[in-house]
Each structure stands twice: as C-alpha cells, then as structure tokens.
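Quarterly update from the structural biology core.
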Amino acid sequence: MTRISARLFLALIAVLAILESGCGKFFSNSNGGGGGGGNSTTTFVYAASSSGVFAYKADLTAGTLTTLAGSPFGTSIAPPVAMVIDPNNKFLYVGSSTGISGFAINSDGTLNTIDLSLNAQLTPAALAASASTLYVLDNSFNTLSALTINSNGTLTTPSGNTAVQVTGLPSGLVIDPAGQHLYAALGSTGILTVNINSDGSLTANSSNIVTPSSTAVSFNDLTITPAGKSMYATANGGVVAFSFNTNGIPTPLSNGAVVTTGTNPSAATVDSSSSFLYVTNRGSDNVASFSITNSGLITPITNSPFATGSAPVGVAVNSKNNFVFVANSQGVQTFAVDSSTPGKLNAKATVNAGNNPAAVVALH
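Predicted structure, tokenized:
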C-alpha cells in the first residue's frame, strides 16, 4: 500500500468512527420525534389557540420570543383547552372539544403533525404525561384514561386497560414526579387520587376524595412541585396548598385555607426548583407570585400580583427558572424573574398567538 493510500485509508476509518458514534450534529431528523433542542441560552415555548399551535424560540438572555416558521401548526384544531409536553420533550399533545392533536417536536423547535387515528373520541378537559403514557381527563364521559405513547408519538389504548369513571366537573390533572399517582380536580366534588399500577392500569381512591371547604368552593387547576412534596389547587379567589400522606393522598395545609391570588384564578405552575408558585388570575388580569417554604406553605412576593394582558389563562416557566410565560387574550407575554428579588416578575414583550390563546407550555 502506498503512503498516500494508507493516509486515505486511515482518514476513511476516522470518518466511519465518527459516524458510528451517532453524533447528532451531523444529521437532523426532519421527521421529528427526536426531542426539542434548547440549551443554556435558548429554549422553545408553545401556545395553543383556536388558530393552531404557535412555536417560539425563547432567548433566555434577552427574554424575547421569536415565532418559528410554519406557525401556527395544526390549524384545524378546535378551540383548545389543554396542552402537555412529554418529559423527554419529544411530543406535544393538545386537547380540544373535538379530540386530541399530536405533534413531534423537532430539534429546531418546529412541529410535525402526528396522525393519531384514535378509535375512541375523547374530549379532554385536562392532560398529563409520563414518558410512556398520556393521561386524559375527559369532560364528556367523565372518565380518566391512559393511552400508550408509542415511539413515533402515536397513541394506543393498552390491552385490557379500562378508564376510571369520575364524578363532578373534570377540570385539572397532574401526575406525581414518581409516576405512582394521578390527581384529578373535579370542581366542587374535590380532588380524586388515582393509583398508577405496575401494569399501567388505574385504580381510583374514591373513598379518599378531598373536598373543598365552603370558602374554596371548588378545585379547578392543579400543579405539583417537581420535588413531589406539595401540590396546589386553584379555588375560589386563590389557591389551596397540600402535602401528601404516606399513601399519596393530598392533605390540606393550614386546614384548607384559601390563599388569595386574585379574581378567578385560571392556571398555576411551579418552577423546576420547587421554590416559586405562579398563578394567573383571569378576572383581575394579573399573575400572582409566591415563594414556597419547605413545608409547602406559600408566601406572596413583594408587589405581587403583577399586571398582565387581559384574561390570562395559562402560565409556564422555563427550565432555568428565569422567565415566566403567560397566555392571555393578546398573545404570550414574557416576564423576567428578577435576579435581585427572586419571584418578582418584570414584564417584557407580548407576541401574537392567534385567536383565543388557551394554554402555554415550555420545554422541560
């Protein structure tokens, strides 16, 4: 073998070794399903409205949202009521009065529509997701169902898996970080705990429904701390805080007292550090901010609540916890979390999200 041929052979071996290592920077999966990108300086945010799903690239230094090409995606979506991203940032699901729409999240944040072809017609009031299962709280048939998330994002009903029947007004749903329990907010009926069994089936703890006090009136939206220690339910004029007993049943803190947030609380979320709670108030056009103590009790941040656009209905926090995104009738409004007063929100720009924005989510 000549010296030149030997060099070419060694170069070829080096290239093949790089390709074999599967370095994602060399190839992009335009069909999606590989999971959304995002890094220390950018992430992706999504808003669902009757116009479709708008995708944005968020600059985590400047706090700006840039609408991605192709938005809105899935323009045939009926007015949405719920939206969720799976924990691996691979798929996004939107629930509306006409069913569920699914999208694969590409590495550049854009979306590809998934043909779900579900046999059952579901009308979600709320959605929750684990890495392998989408949970659907239905408000037409009053059921809680589990759907398997396949590798391509399609959904199938597990064999022999039956839906759990619920009572009341289905409105909110969360899954605990350990993936062992679901919590369903059922309006004035209360909060139902549902066990997730090892085979994926669901068992309702119907005898342990936590009912709202006469002051709380009803429980609507739910959010749980990523640490899994505390849960918060929007109620009449505020939120109620909960811890959990050894069986995973919610236990109201402060005797179930309602902590005032504003008029008609509409959505709630907790940051990834389990340190701050944010609640949008549709009736008073603002977002309330609270610090979370080790026991789960909450304390209002100075100058909270903070003014938003009209009728805020959704709230999300980026994984670095330095920006909060609020969906309101004008679009998606960005708030920077104050660096000197943690939890304090500083309003920034609002971007268009189409007609009647109903929900906003950010990559985990």
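DSSP finds one helix and 31 strands in the chain.
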